[in-house]
Amino acid sequence: MTLPASQKVRLYQSAMYLLGALVVLLVALFTDWAKVQRNFFNLDVAADMWPNVVTTAAINTIVYTALSFLLGFVLALLLALMRLSSLRAYRAFAIGYIELFRGLPALITLLFVGYGIPIAFGWRLPGGTLGVGSAGLAIVAGAYMAETIRAGIEAVPRGQSEAARSLGMSKTRTMFTIVLPQAFRIIIPPLTNELVLLIKDTSLFFILGSTPETKELTKFARDFMSSSRNATPLTVAALIYLIITLPLTFLVRRLERSAAKAR
Amino acid sequence: MNVAIDIRELHKSFGALHVLQGIDLTVDSGEVVCVLGPSGSGKSTLLRCLNRLEEPDSGSILIDGAEITDPEADVDQLRTMIGMVFQQFNLFPHLNVRRNLTVGQTGVLRRKRVEADQVAEDMLERVGLSEKIDEYPIRLSGGQQQRVAIARALSMQPKMMLFDEPTSALDPELVGEVLDVMRSLANDGMTMMVVTHEIGFAMEAADRVVFMDQGVVVEQGPPEQVLSDPSEERTKQFLRMVKDH
Q1: Taking the model in full, what pTM does it have?
Q2: I want to staple B2 with a disulfide (CB 3.0 to 4.6 A). Which of A216, A255, B29, B198 is the partner?
Q3: What is the rounded end-to-end Cα distance, in angstroms, of chain B?
Q4: Cβ within 8 Å, pair B79-A168
């Protein structure tokens, strides 16, 4: 006996629902919910973290991210302009830099900056964890953002710079007053994505060592987990990360949609 | 009469394509020259060589007596004397109309803000769009955008104006307003070189019509002669094709 196509689809969907429900049921039955609650959602432990988890850890995460982003952006702009330079040596340097630091784990770069340089030269970047870590992340972020900025510059129609040049503007003036402002509008969404990636990458700062004042969210949660022998601090940290990143990703989606509309 | 544009033995290739094959052409000060020809004849390339948006391969171009093709020439400075209007308008979309008209004046000519604003207002009035001064380009129709683009070029108070198919991207009903502005410019004595397909405009506004094909000037002369009684077969053929449409 053959069933009509529409009934076949309905039968298949019902079977899939049933399977899914079964899996959920089994997980629910065999999980020790009390243990989960005690170890991941322990309100007493969470309360102990207050207020330092926000006033120190979350603030540090935000400050580290902001400085990394700022330094990385300046570096990226420089690299993007070099990448588009008419001088072959500048182009080659930019390409080499971008490929190098996009090819390395961020952790390696952080280790180079945080330990390699002091070992080699007996000199440490100023600013402690903030200075060293942000410089390290900026080096990496600069490589990624340089490609984003370059793509933005190339997305501005040629006619724009031709019109500017025909008014007598120099190459540099054309770039800064006509091309870059339009390029930045185009790349706000991908740059915001870059910012979200950076927020998460600041969790690597643990490798640089820290004092109670310089801990960011992940390090703070990890230490609190050790001392309280409970995993709740991780949950709290995760929630705070989401509170910071979700609005940003939401913003990106809105910006992308309005940019698509403007075209 | 002064020679505004003096083109000698101009050659330009794109790869294997020899687009300009030895152009000799002069435009007198105050003269309106329309350049006609089939697409691919090199007329836009010729225009774009005049302010070196395209680099000529050989030959020379004198702008108001100064050689812009000289490697030592101050191209940026010479460009301020040459207004250019593009097929796609190329207004700066991130700047409002006022800033579109002043960004070159303040940045390149170093005019004071007040003076630049005054010039911008005068030029906008000239193209009949004074009320649009605070709008952004995207809010304007194609015809209005092109008129603003003309005003932007005029704001630099250039000695001559180049028009690269200024009405080709416009809906038919918007062509007239742009041609009107160009006609009044011509009447005011502006030196103009216009690459166009508008035979009617060439007929009434041009002092001279230049017909180009395959990288050379085929013939030139007063519009009534070139357009009504051409001597070259290629010109006749082109005019037949254009008029059939």
Answers
A1: 0.86
A2: B29
A3: 38
A4: yes
- As given in the structure block, the two tokens for residue A24 are 């959920």
- The rounded distance, in Å, linking the Cα atoms of A138 and B129 is 48
Asked if B153 lies within 8 A of A173 by C-beta distance, the reply is: no
Q: Which two tokens stand for residue B134?
A: 């605070």
pLDDT in 10s for each residue of chain A, 263 residues: 677 888 889 999 999 999 999 999 999 999 998 999 999 999 999 898 888 888 999 999 999 999 999 999 999 999 999 999 999 999 999 999 999 999 999 999 999 999 999 999 988 888 888 999 999 999 999 999 999 999 999 999 999 999 999 999 999 999 999 999 999 999 999 999 999 999 999 999 999 988 888 899 999 999 999 999 999 999 999 999 999 999 998 988 888 887 766 54
Q: How far is CA A136 from CA A198, A240, A252, B217, in A?
A: 11, 24, 25, 62
Closest C-alpha to B211, from B203, B221, B224, B200:
B221
A259 interfaces chain B, CB cutoff of 8 Å = no
Q: For residue A142, what pLDDT is reported?
A: 97
Residues 6+ apart with CB under 8 A from B105: B111, B115, B116, B119, B120, B155, B156
Q: Does A141 touch chain B (CB under 8 A)?
A: no
Closest by Cβ to A166, choosing from B53, B94, B109 = B53
Minimum Cα–Cα distance from A179: chain B residue: B92
Could you say which of A160, A165, A173 has the minimum Cβ distance to residue B92? A160
The string of DSSP letters for A80-111 reads HHHHT-S-HHHHHHHHHHHHHHHHS-HHHHHH
Please report residues of B whose CB lies closer than 8 A to that of A156: none
Q: Which CATH superfamily is domain A35-262 in?
A: MetI-like (1.10.3720.10)
Amino acid sitting at position A13: Q
Of B84, B88, B93, the CB nearest to A182: B93
Q: Which of A165, A167, A178 sits opposite B156 (nearest CB)?
A: A167
Contact A166 B79 (CB under 8 A): yes
- Say yes or no: A20 contacts chain B, CB-CB below 8 A: no
Domain ranges of chain A: 35-262
pLDDT of residue A262: 58
Rounded CA separation A237/A247 (Å): 16
Three-state secondary structure call for residue B219: strand
Largest CA-CA distance found in chain B, in angstroms, rounded: 55
Indicate the burial class of A198 (C-beta count within 10 angstroms; 0-12, 13-18, 19 or more): buried
Mean pLDDT score across all residues of chain B? 95
Tell me the one-letter amino acid at B184.
S
DSSP sequence for B180-208: HHHHHHHHTT-EEEEE-S-HHHHHHH-SE
